[in-house]
Design brief:
The structure is a single chain. The protein has 3 domains: about 180 residues, Leucine Aminopeptidase, subunit E, domain 1; about 80 residues, no CATH class; about 120 residues, no CATH class. Helices cover about 50% and strands about 10% of the residues. It has 22 helices and 10 strands. Helix 4 packs parallel to helix 5, helix 6 packs antiparallel against helix 7 and helix 16 packs antiparallel against helix 19. The protein is elongated, with a radius of gyration of 33 Å.
């Protein structure tokens, strides 16, 4: 039922649904996600926008539109952070949620991509083990739910990895089904019948074949030993006995087990006792225990915002404050800016010079502007990257507003994991409220410069509710400051 083939999931036919490796916004990203959105057409994005995103480890269902399938299951897998951020549990939850959606909607033929193994950087061998184990566990509970589950993967090497993992799983399940003791569960009555039958057979045989049976007549172990002799002489009949015949008599054998067991037999092991008593389940150590892992969407980058700070300020909650800006004096202020260079940043195996370059490149990918993406990736100057980002084709403000905090968060997590100086500087800020003191920006920043924001003792001059850029009535949001605070919390979690 589970298989893996090499191919293009946007062209594969014969499936009711394909499972897309989606971003949290569900509005399309790079890689296979972007391909599926381009093939499905703009109607898919319109439907996805109504779903208001999806948390990591969960899935959503839409129509397939121009895809060669009726439905698309959008499963949001985890970004690989080195295995320290609950990636395995989130990836497993991702597969289980996709299968549950398929089951609820009677979708029996499903094509999966290798979730999280592309741009999200999850190592293919590790991802395949999680994927096949999750699907196998779901099928064990729902054996009749699906007709075909197929991984469709463009890369030959990755296909081989998934095929090998599927082969590894199959023999293990077969061994469990065959592991049934045949002789120890026979009752005394069955044993006597076997004994009489063997005597009748041995009367027609020569003296050398009679001797072993006669020698064992007075022993309680005779039926078992006789059976072993019979098995060695006629392996085909023995195999038949342990198959269909045994299954037909399984219930009566179990009920008479204690009385039927010959006194000379060795006691059954714990595993055998479970099977003899009709308990074919796994031991306590093998039982799956559901793990609730808080997703980054709810636990991290949404933790702080301007409304949180307004409430804190008006409730007189004490805080210290730290301002930064890419044009501020002092290296520490500059380091916290997304324009700061420092060491190269590596996110999902791709190299970036600055966080600004990462943010703008993700913006271009989101809206399918590959030309602008290439320009941004070749540009080291963050101010020029920002200019390119302002001119992205097919830009949808509502879609970008839904995802850009998540993009900034991932950019800065990548920065922290790639640049020790940046991570150390961020941790030095302790529990301070971080403010981007840009007098020109009231989205990423506070719309005010540091001298207008803070008194000499570090307290606020202007209440957060009154933060706005010059000649603007718009409430400043300080998004960058709050996201950095979330990244700081995340780094602390890793320590």
């Amino acid at each position: 039922m589970i298989r893996a083939i090499q191919g293009d999931i946007t062209k594969i036919t014969g499936f009711q649904a394909v499972v897309n490796s989606a971003v949290n916004s569900l509005l399309g990203g790079g890689g296979i996600d972007g391909q599926i959105h381009r093939v499905a057409g703009p109607q898919l994005r319109t439907e996805c926008r109504r779903l208001n995103g999806c948390e990591t480890g969960d899935s959503r269902l839409t129509l397939g539109y121009n895809m060669p399938c009726d439905y698309i299951i959008h499963a949001v897998g985890p970004v690989w952070m080195g295995g320290t951020a609950g990636e395995e549990e989130l990836l497993r939850a991702c597969y289980l949620s996709a299968l549950k959606l398929a089951l609820e909607n009677n979708l029996r033929k499903i094509a999966f991509c290798a979730i999280s193994s592309g741009e999200y950087g999850y190592p293919a061998e590790m991802a395949s083990k999680v994927a096949i184990k999750a699907i196998g566990d779901f099928l064990a509970d729902n054996p009749e739910a699906f007709d075909d589950i197929c991984f469709v993967i463009p890369d030959e090497a990755a296909v081989n990895i998934y095929q090998e993992e599927i082969k590894e799983m199959t023999p293990k399940k077969t061994e469990v089904k065959k592991k049934k003791p045949v002789r120890k569960t026979k009752s005394r009555e069955d044993a006597e019948e076997t004994k009489d039958a063997e005597k009748a057979l041995t009367e027609a045989e020569d003296d050398t074949e009679k001797a072993p049976v006669e020698a064992d007549d007075d022993s309680e172990n005779a039926p078992a030993d006789s059976d072993e002799t019979e098995e060695s002489n006629a392996p085909d009949e023995s195999e038949n006995e342990s198959g269909e015949d045994e299954n037909e008599a399984g219930d009566s054998i179990t009920e008479q087990e204690k009385e039927a067991e010959p006194e000379g037999d060795a006691p059954a092991s714990e595993g055998e006792e479970q099977i003899e008593n009709g308990e074919e389940g796994t031991s306590e150590e093998e039982e799956e225990i559901p793990i609730q892992v808080p997703t980054l969407a709810t636990a991290i980058w949404h933790k702080y915002d301007i409304n949180w700070l307004i409430d804190e300020y008006e409730n007189n909650t004490p805080h210290t404050y730290k301002c930064f800006w890419h044009e501020s004096d002092g290296s520490e202020n500059s380091i916290l800016s997304h324009w700061y260079g420092g060491k190269l940043i590596f996110i999902n195996g791709i190299k970036y010079d600055t966080v600004e370059q990462y943010i703008m490149s993700e913006k271009a990918l989101l809206f399918g502007d590959i030309g602008t993406y290439n320009l941004i990736m070749q540009e080291k100057d963050p101010s020029q990257c920002k200019k390119y980002g302002r001119n992205v084709q097919n830009y949808d403000e509502a879609a970008w507003n839904m995802i850009f905090k998540e993009v900034i968060f991932h950019g800065y997590v990548g920065k922290a994991l790639s640049d020790e100086e940046f991570a150390a500087t961020l941790l030095k800020t302790g529990d301070s409220v971080l403010i981007e003191a840009s007098p020109f920006d009231d989205i990423y920043g506070a719309g005010l410069k540091e001298t207008d924001l803070l008194n000499e003792d570090g307290t606020l001059k202007v209440p957060p509710r009154e933060w706005h850029a010059y000649k603007s009535e718009r409430q400043a949001e300080n998004v960058l400051g709050f996201v950095l605070m979330a990244v700081r919390d995340y780094i602390k979690m890793l320590l």
